[in-house]
Amino acid sequence: MKKVKDFIKQKSTILQLMFVASVLILVLVEISKIIRDVDWNQVSDGLLSQSIFSIIMMLILGMFSVTPMLIYDISITSFLSEKFNWKYILKSGWITNTFTNIAGFGGILGATLRASFYGKKSSKKQVLYAISKIALFLLAGLSIYCWVSLFIIFGLHIGAGLTKYWIWLVGGGLYFPLLFSITKFKNNAFFGDLTLKKELFLIMGSCLEWAGAGLFFIYIGLVLGVKFNILEIFALYIIASVFGVISMVPGGLGSFDVFIILGMESIGIGNADVIVWLLFFRIFYYIVPFFVGTVLFVHTLGNKVNEYFDGIPSALLQKTAHILITIFMYASGIIMLIEAAVPSFAFSNFILVKLYPLTFLFLHQMTDVIFAFLLIAMGRGFESRVKKSFWPTIIVLGIGIVNTLWRVYTPGLAWFLIFIMACVILSRKELYREQLRYSFGKMFVDGGIFTVTFLLYLLVGFLNFRPIGHKSIPVPEVLIFQGQQIWLSGFMGMILAGIIMLIIITSFTSDTDPFRKMNFDKKRIKKIIDNYSGNEVSHLAFLRDKNIYYYRVNGEDIMYFMYRRKNDKLIFMGEPVGNMDYLKDAIKELMTQADYYGYELVFYEINSKLTMLLHDLGFDFIKNGEEGYVTLKDFSLSGKKKRGERALINKFEREGYTFEMIEPPFSKELIQELKQVSDSWLDGQLEKGFSLGFFDEYYLNQANISIIKDADNKIVAFASMMPMDDKTLSIDLMRHSKQAPSGIMDKIFITLFEYGKENGYERFDMGMAPLANVGTSQYSFIEERAAHFIYEYGYSFYGFQGLRDYKDKYVSYWLPKYTAYRKRSSIVSTMLEVTSVVNSKRREQFRREISLSRFWS
């Protein structure tokens, strides 16, 4: 016995899930029997004969008539030690009572459900006593109305044909006095906590329940326009209910209906009217509330299953619903466009013929086209998880569903469209983004659909409706169109659809986007660098051609990232600058905020440590180059290998070339002289930004510049310094005029190596050099080969391949650099966007955004 108890205790959650699932199956079996026995043609005819207002009122009043039953569940909680919130009581009560109406089994189902809902923390005895007391009072109201019916029949002399049923009314009427007497005069523990107030509350609940059902039954007859005496029908309803209770069939199904039919026949109401009356009563009092209860029950069951499996089922269901809705909206839109553009092809293709009934039906060509593009626009917002797309999607689908069912009603189509709407509601939590960001792939798909449809429509119009006298061209059978006026209507619809689609997409993409701000603030950036040191890219912030993201802890800036937006990507330049102890937290925050606004992150030219961290956070990566370093203590011009460099340096010294390290601020005259050298070196080519410095007066004034002068004291070459940390020396811009002698670059590097040694630096950063060793293996993926091709041949001006060979003669060691991107992203499209950003020309607008008054701050 103990083993059985332990087993039940261990498996309690699973057993509960099995129980609620079995209840759902049991009730669904019962409701399927009811639905199977319903003559839906009669229901359809009856509904069509009613106004929309009448149907809505039957829905509302049917739901309202069920609500008094909730009093039982409010009462049961007063007998238990555990306290429940009102939402839980209403939800549990609705499920219990609507299920009991359909499949009561003599109250067993209701008692079992209530024990499951309310018996978690109370003792078994408490639960059993509470449920039993509630069960006793379920028929109290019916018993009281038996006496009311006797008074109607014998006191008011209404319903003479019902007098023969007096024995049933007297028998039913005796139940309440007997119950009341037992609760008051039988002194035992069972009724010990049943106060007069609680008892009256239960009696009131039962009276309201039976009154609500009876009055709603009478209301249905009034809606149908049947002539009858209200009191007589109420008495008949009570007698039929007594028969139904005695039969112990849920809802009195069968026995109640037979008695009602026979009773109404005796008072002159035709069977046809009575059958529709009963059908409407079953639908709006039993079936509709039951479906609401089923939704609540499935939600409860889902919560239990979801909790048991740590939220996985809920996430899976939401994502599945999200995918299904996206596919449905795009597929429906495309099928409708095909049917509008090439109807002959659409109706001759057996696949499209089978799929078309599962979309929406509009009888006007213009409406067809507009609605198709509306679906595609909504589908894009939905696919991109944009919050603002939910209600427009609901409205668009709602219009389509109502229109389609109004024109072509079939139960199968109705259920399918209800399923689609349910999927939209289920996937609502998937919609969390503030805005839509278009990727290259998304633009290609949506733009392609519109462009292809537009061109195809023009082609169809040209082939079918050529001007008189035009050379005859046979029209392919699949492109035959039904009429010029219809084609013109569709063409106007396509133009309107394009405008509407553009408005919708614009509304989805427009929002307060924090990642659009440049956020350059010299004081904030310098403070972070001063506090935590810089790195090989930190100084590029002063180019002001990149956006800045600050990571703050307790209101203090401790890290900044540099990036640029490209479509749906935020492309970050190098590693962040600041306190690396918070690196993981900063990236997680950045990922969350970026995703919230529809962006994906790409990190360009980052070290292996950051790459591995990003890999753990769901990123993939590709190696795209190496950073070269010179160990300054090991550098020397002595030895046979360096005799060429020694000779070169000696030559420059003999010819009077001098080196000088100058500090800002720089005079206008000096800047102008440096610009002449830079312009000579550029030779008309436009400079690039992002990962490289460009000639900018403000930027150059942020760090020292090393210059080389000839014997005439004229600057022939310069290199702007790249401040990093106390141990690393590096440069950014390195320019020389066309008049500079050969070997001037070696002169700059060697002189800077010696300068670094003399000033206590340990290494010299030679900068990045792309590699040709990624994606070249026969085992490399095609995407890797394509990505490397894009990267390798994406630099038309700077010629990095040759630069690596040049740097290699000085470099002591190389450190790998990577590009990291989200795993679900295409590496090819990512590298195309990265290359586009890296090769973009310097942004003059960023320079204009900063006031001239700050240049010298």
Automatic annotation (TrEMBL):
Membrane topology per record: Multi-pass membrane protein
Class in the EC hierarchy, top level: transferase
Keywords from the named record: Acyltransferase, Cell membrane, Membrane, Transferase, Transmembrane, Transmembrane helix
A single BP term in Gene Ontology: phospholipid homeostasis
A GO CC annotation given for this chain: plasma membrane
Parts of the chain that traverse the membrane: 12-31, 52-72, 92-113, 134-159, 165-182, 202-224, 230-249, 256-277, 283-302, 323-346, 358-377, 389-406, 412-431, 443-465, 485-508
Main localization, broad class: membrane
Phosphatidylglycerol lysyltransferase C-terminal domain sequence ranges: 528-821
EC number assigned by the record: 2.3.2.3
Origin superkingdom: Bacteria
Pfam families: LPG_synthase_C (PF09924)
Transferase listed as a keyword: yes
Record localization: Cell membrane
GO molecular function, one term: phosphatidylglycerol lysyltransferase activity
Keyword Acyltransferase: yes
UniProt protein name: Hypothetical membrane spanning protein
Organism: Ligilactobacillus salivarius cp400
